[in-house]
Each structure stands twice: as C-alpha cells, then as structure tokens.
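Journal club prep, notes for RB
We'll compare a predicted complex against what the paper describes. Inputs for the magnesium ion case:
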Amino acid sequence: MKPDKSATAVVRMESDAGTTDRLPQAVPDHTIALMAEPRALVPQQLEERRLIHRDASSRVQSDAFRELRTRLLSLANGNNFITLVVAVSPRSGASFVARNLAAAFALDETKTSLLLDCNLRYPDQHRALGVATDNGGLVDFLDQPSQGIAAKIYATGVPRLRLIPAGSAREDGGEYFSSFRMQALLQHLRSRYGDRYLFLDGPAVKGSPDARILSELADFVLLVAGYGCDTPAAISQAAAHFAPEKFAGVVFNQVP
Ligand SMILES: Nc1ncnc2c1ncn2[C@@H]1O[C@H](COP(=O)(O)OP(=O)(O)O)[C@@H](O)[C@H]1O
Ligand SMILES: [Mg+2]
C-alpha cells in the first residue's frame, strides 16, 4: 500500500443522522477492550492486508479513517452502534473502507470492533485479512444457531479487531438478512459489550437489494463512491435507498 498515492478522501455530506435519540443504551456486563490477542501483525503485514496502522507511513490514510470514526461517534450520543458500509457500484472499495474503519475504532484502546462480512455472494474479508475460517461464519450460524456464534468470531491480528466471515457462499442474502435470527444476533453482539462497535460490509447498492435490507439492521449507513468512477447522479440515486436519519455520508475512495 502506498498511502500517499492512494489517499482516501473523506467528504461529509448533509445528513440528518444522529438527530434522533433512537439508539438503545448499551448495558455492558463487562469490557472486552483488554481482551487477549493471540498474534499481533507487524506494520508490513498490515500493509499487505491494506490496513491502516500507527506508523508514519500510514498517516494520510489513518487520519482519514480516524476522521470518519470521529464523525460517526459524534452522531451516536455516546452509545455503541452498527454501521453499514456499502459501495455505489462494485469494486469501489467498500470492503476496504469497512475493514479500515473497523481498524480505526480498534486503534482506540478503549474500543473494540467487530466486522461482519455480509457480502454473501462474493465474501472477501477473510481472504483480505488472512483469516482461516475453519469454524464457518455468519450464514453457517444463521442456518444452525445451535453451533453458537463465539467460535465464528475470529481474531485478525489487529488488536481489538474481530471478524465474523460470511461463511459458505450463498445467493439469497436477503432472506438471511431479513430474518429474525439476524436481528437477534446483531442485538446480542451489540448489547453484550458497550465498547464494541459493529461494522457490516455489504454488497454494492447497484445490482443487489441486500444493501437496503441490511440498512434496516444498522444505525448508520456509509456510502462508498469510487472517486472519479461513480457519477453524482449515481451517488444520489444510491443514497436515496436509505433512510435519511441513518445516512452518515459518502466516502470518496480512490482505488489505486
Ligand atoms: N484506497 C485504497 N487503497 C488501496 N487499495 C484499495 C483502496 N480501495 C480499494 N482497494 C483495493 O481494491 C480492491 C477492490 O476493493 P474492495 O474493497 O474489495 O471493493 P468493493 O468491496 O467495493 O467491491 C481490493 O483489493 C482493495 O483492497
Ligand atoms: Mg466488497
């Protein structure tokens, strides 16, 4: 990764998000911010995974993602929350943004983040993060909740950042995402720890109804536009899929 060349421009858009007081207060029984970390990746490994880190070489990008973190936190009245990250069109970098935004929250030692790969047709986060998904992932849990979710939450090598991979590839994401099980899972994951922030990596708005369905499960929606690729009309059209009070803004991402 060359952070200076592939800088992610973060642009705030007008939005009503955060003006309502609708997030339930988290009631954490205890904190997980100090949880054990099996293996921490070194900066070079983080760069191979296209992940921000604390070193100066990552400064431009990590500042951009920290700014996004600050913006989301300012909308949230002090509660933890669920953010959906989706692209206007495929290959704009939504998974890249979701992963790095989750990493930016985890850089704050008082917070933990949990990334859920909700792109069931083309799941990619486990590959990008180099996680071996031996125990399956999200859809495997939704198919068989008796397996429990704990074994499907994987360490990533980034302290305090965990991944729930998509699991076995499926075509019919909508059915899973509109299920009561999915709702109950997210509610459980969010309310269990007050310092845990959830990020849903969804498929692009163009070509799939899943992004809109997933937005119903999220507190905030971030739309990722390919810098110089998606037209203003396409961006507005994609934004119109989401409830204005959840819409946190557009991230213009320059794919190198
Ligand atoms: N700003 C960026 N800097 C470096 N690599 C990027 C950036 N944006 C995207 N990429 C890379 O481009 C590819 C496509 O991005 P991805 O996040 O998978 O797109 P999407 O999820 O929107 O389909 C991935 O290999 C990703 O790591
Ligand atoms: Mg993706």
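Talking point for the session: The chain has a mean pLDDT of 88.
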